[in-house]
Design goal:
Blueprint (H helix, E strand, L loop, with lengths): L7 H33 L3 H12 L7
Length: 62
């Protein structure tokens, strides 16, 4: 990334904006992958483990 700002304040503002954009894109990609994993059944084992814990009495209300 090239920054052509004339002041440190402008540079920091630009970098903060670019970081925010990058983090948003990363979160969107993570959410998309999570949804695909759920639909494909890749996380079913977690549901089964939770149900087994519930049946075995290893859960409690918070």
């Amino acid at each position: 990334m090239k920054c052509k700002e004339n002041t440190q304040e402008a540079l920091v503002k630009t970098l903060a904006h670019e970081l925010h954009e990058a983090l948003e894109a990363e979160q969107e990609a993570w959410e998309k992958q999570f949804e695909e994993d759920v639909k494909a059944g890749h996380l079913d084992y977690l549901r089964e483990e939770a149900l087994e814990d519930l049946r075995a009495g290893r859960c409690f209300d918070l």
